């Protein structure tokens, strides 16, 4: 069950700098830990995150094993036009999670 | 004179309670929130940065998911949790008439699963159980804790209180030695809090996940090198009940964030 929490301002003035905050559900297993029996716990992390604003990629991040569970990412963009932000998290074992949020620019 | 003084000292020592500082007066009770730094507080305050809310979201989905051989969802009996579950978590652990003892919210969820959904119980600390209890507890956010109001719970609250005062483990420490007598001090880099259970289940940064009050109690017990009670053990439930009774009237914060 993958879920995400997105915080994008519902409306903004044209040219405003807006903050986008995302939090997604993931265990981010490092691949360095061992079980009590000594077996390596296989790595299971999110490896990449992208944000598209009306189809144009505006932010991308690569994620690594040292990042905490349930990664929280915050970044800024300039509100140019009304539309949709689309978020995508891609990870190990075929993990894909998507979310979107709308903004009205006046 | 010195003989008399020795007697006086002996009498004073004999009369002194086992724990010198004693219990926290109601006006001085503080949530673990007040011991945290500004960053962790900000994380809890904003529902889009509080990772506990991810579990609440999952719980909301589970609430309406049909399960077990009865094919019933929580919502089929309880309806809209926003109405029916308001303030419920604030009065748990609650007395169960059939069992004749208090049960925690997690145990209540599993009893519901067994009796009404004919489903297998969810393991303690499993994601689904935590998600459901977080979702239910979230409906009590801001509500005052009212646990232990039921007179039938009195002997169990007393048992919990006795366990709270009981020195145990290789370090020979009672819960009260830290959480009644030495709160506001530090254990290495960590704040010693009053141990008020206002935000469970809560997201602990150290755990990297949500956890129950029982998990917290068990890690405290390992900390004093004591043998921790098993999940669901009557002793843990009694302790949980005493802690909730001790925090009576304090507002619920579930799901809280703690370092």
Automatic annotation (TrEMBL), chain A:
Coiled coil: none annotated. InterPro entries: Ig-like_fold, Ig_E-set, SoxZ, SoxZ_dom. SUPFAM superfamilies: E set domains. Residues 9-101 form the Sulphur oxidation protein SoxZ domain. Pfam families: SoxZ (PF08770). It comes from the Bacteria. NCBIfam families: SoxZ_true. This is Thiosulfate oxidation carrier complex protein SoxZ. It comes from Bradyrhizobium iriomotense. The lineage of its organism: Bacteria, Pseudomonadati, Pseudomonadota, Alphaproteobacteria, Hyphomicrobiales.
TrEMBL record, chain B:
It catalyses: L-cysteinyl-[SoxY protein] + thiosulfate + 2 Fe(III)-[cytochrome c] = S-sulfosulfanyl-L-cysteinyl-[SoxY protein] + 2 Fe(II)-[cytochrome c] + 2 H(+); S-sulfanyl-L-cysteinyl-[SoxY protein] + thiosulfate + 2 Fe(III)-[cytochrome c] = S-(2-sulfodisulfanyl)-L-cysteinyl-[SoxY protein] + 2 Fe(II)-[cytochrome c] + 2 H(+). It is an enzyme of class 2 (transferase). Residues 46-140, 155-247 form the Cytochrome c domain. Its EC number is 2.8.5.2. Transmembrane segments: none annotated. Keywords: Electron transport, Heme, Iron, Metal-binding, Periplasm, Signal, Transferase, Transport. Its main location: periplasm. It is found in: Periplasm. Residues 1-21 form the signal peptide. It holds the Pfam family SoxA-TsdA_cyt-c. Heterodimer of SoxA and SoxX. Belongs to the SoxA family. This is SoxAX cytochrome complex subunit A. It comes from Bradyrhizobium iriomotense. The lineage of its organism: Bacteria, Pseudomonadati, Pseudomonadota, Alphaproteobacteria, Hyphomicrobiales.
């Amino acid at each position: 069950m993958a879920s995400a929490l997105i915080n994008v301002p519902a409306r903004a003035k044209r040219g405003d700098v807006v903050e986008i905050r995302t939090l997604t559900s993931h265990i981010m297993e490092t691949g360095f830990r061992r079980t009590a029996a000594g077996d390596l716990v296989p790595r299971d992390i999110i490896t990449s995150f992208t944000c598209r604003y009306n189809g144009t990629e505006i932010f991308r991040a690569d994620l690594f094993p040292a990042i905490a569970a349930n990664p929280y990412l915050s970044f800024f963009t300039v509100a140019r036009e009304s539309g949709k932000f689309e978020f995508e998290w891609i990870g190990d074992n075929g993990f894909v999670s998507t979310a979107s949020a709308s903004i009205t620019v006046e | 004179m010195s003989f008399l003084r020795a007697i006086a000292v002996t009498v004073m020592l004999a009369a002194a309670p086992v724990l010198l500082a004693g219990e926290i007066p109601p006006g001085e009770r503080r949530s673990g929130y007040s011991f945290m730094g500004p960053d962790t507080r900000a994380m809890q305050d904003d529902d889009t940065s509080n990772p506990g809310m991810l579990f609440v979201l999952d719980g909301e989905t589970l609430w309406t998911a049909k399960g077990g051989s009865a094919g019933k969802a929580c919502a089929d009996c309880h309806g809209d949790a926003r109405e029916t579950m308001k303030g419920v978590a604030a009065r748990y652990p609650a007395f169960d008439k059939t069992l004749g003892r208090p049960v925690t919210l997690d145990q209540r969820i599993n009893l519901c699963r067994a009796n009404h959904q004919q489903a297998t119980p969810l393991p303690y600390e499993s994601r689904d159980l935590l998600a459901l209890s977080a979702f239910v507890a979230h409906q009590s956010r801001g509500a005052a804790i009212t646990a232990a109001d039921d007179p039938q719970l009195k002997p169990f609250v007393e048992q919990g209180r006795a366990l709270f005062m009981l020195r145990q483990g290789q370090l020979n420490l009672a819960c009260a030695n830290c959480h009644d007598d030495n709160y506001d001090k530090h254990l290495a880099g960590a704040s010693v809090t009053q141990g008020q259970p206002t935000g469970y289940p809560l997201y602990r940064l150290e755990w990297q996940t949500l956890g129950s009050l029982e998990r917290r109690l068990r890690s405290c017990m390992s900390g004093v090198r004591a043998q921790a009670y098993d999940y669901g053990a009557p002793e843990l439930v009694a302790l949980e009940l005493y802690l909730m009774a001790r925090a009576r009237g304090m507002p619920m914060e579930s799901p809280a964030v703690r370092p």
